[in-house]
Amino acid sequence: MKKIKIWDSPTRLFHWALVINIIAAWYTIENRLIELHEIAGHTLIALLVFRVCWGFVGSTTARFSHFITHPISALQYLVKSLKLKVHHKIGHNPAGGWMIVIMMLVIGFQLISGLLANNDLGFSGALSDYVSKATSDRLTQLHGLNFDLLVAIIWVHLVAVFFYVLVKRDNLVKAMITGFKILERQPAFRLRFASMYLAVSVFLLSAGLSAYLYYP
């Protein structure tokens, strides 16, 4: 049995920062803290832009090319996984990879619609002036509906994680905290980990874009 590093620090920090900021976005809107809600939203923009970029230039297990497979392959993996006939240990599995993509797309729409939304009480998103009031109103409605969809996806994600932890005895949560897994042998392919300097540079650019939208 070998202790193998699977996840890099930037990917793990992104994951938990995303969790915190989604909760913050929900809490602030539920309590009518609209200015703090906007800050949470712009923080999520920086995080999402970073993750998209990291999906192309980051470490092996963070790259889209590593975990995005053909949809049919993902479905086949899902069926076999439910029957406990397959065990995937390195990075996102084929079904989980598509869950990540779908979640990122839903979060992306949530952020874009938020930038174009308004609440008819003096607040408007950073880009709402670029669309008509009717369009902004419609996107405001979709912003709320899309969040319900996001919550549903998060619940599916949590169910899948606990299925792996409790049934398949594969502690995905611990791996995303520590970055390591205990494996029977070395991976068949070489895992490459990108530089932390690259990660910081990518995040600063992402944060700069978010700040530019926040302070137009």
UniProtKB/TrEMBL annotation:
SUPFAM superfamilies per the UniProt record, alphabetical: Transmembrane di-heme cytochromes (SSF81342)
Gene3D superfamilies referenced in this protein's UniProt entry, alphabetically: Transmembrane di-heme cytochromes, Chain C
Source organism: Paraglaciecola algarum
Protein name, entry field: Cytochrome b/b6 domain-containing protein
Listed transmembrane segments: 12-29, 41-57, 95-117, 149-167, 194-215
Cytochrome b561 bacterial/Ni-hydrogenase domain sequence ranges: 7-179
Origin: domain of life: Bacteria
Chief subcellular location: membrane
Keyword Membrane: yes
Membrane topology: Multi-pass membrane protein
Record's keyword annotation contains Glycoprotein: no
Record's subcellular location: Cell membrane
Keywords: Cell membrane, Membrane, Transmembrane, Transmembrane helix
